[in-house]
# Entry
Amino acid sequence: MSTIRAIVTDIEGTTSSISFVKDVLFPYARERLPAFVVTHSDKPEVQHWLHEAAREAGLVSASEQEIIDLLIGWIDTDRKSTALKALQGMIWQDGYRDSDFRAHVYADAARCLRRWSAAGLPLYVYSSGSVPAQKLLFAHTEQGDLSSVFSGYFDTETGAKRESASYSRIARAIDLPADRILFLSDIVEELDAARTAGLRTVLVARSGDGCPAGAGHPCVIDFDAIDLDSL
Ligand SMILES: CSCCC(=O)C(=O)COP(=O)(O)O
Ligand SMILES: [Mg+2]
# Structure
């Protein structure tokens, strides 16, 4: 009988391929970002995140073009900036609406998420992608609409993914003891932070090379291999 009462999952590299994020989502946002900023900068929410990006970069008074260049540079270096992620999410909304792409989710992930949810296990997402972007992604996957399986979503407004305090906040928000929550990720540093906060952890190693030696966390190659009763 498993003691796990909730599961929190990462997206990129865990439920979904790294290639979907790097080769589909990021180029889509990169190409459309300049026009998006120019045509939406009067919108309060867009203005807020442009201001936050400038503040994060220490720019006191930046032109629209300087902020666009800054954001493009951050996309190219995969900076996990909350401001960038919020703006990217707004651009991806058009892509999902216009069916320019659908989100990649591994079949094993979709299958297990649906099974765990049907068994009454609350499921959550914790990703660097903004909460609106997470909701869009899971509503438009190649495996169908997965929105109904999730009880909640967390992004970097809760804190950085490599800081243990973020996982303590998530446990408080979920309202369960940390050791009843399982966190799934492809990044060992995120799992280390989650474990420091008391969560249970499983490394999802999808590279095809199998589980790395000395990862320091229980490890699986896909969601089908996760045995909740053995954790
Ligand atoms: C809504 S997912 C968009 C992917 C993204 O922008 C990202 O940075 C993924 O990071 P993760 O924390 O899911 O590895
Ligand atoms: Mg990841």
Remarks:
- The helical segments are 18-40, 44-56, 64-76, 82-97, 107-118, 131-139, 164-174, 188-196.
- The mean pLDDT is 97.
- The chain has two domains: 6-16+103-230, 20-97.
- The first helix runs from residue 18 to 40.
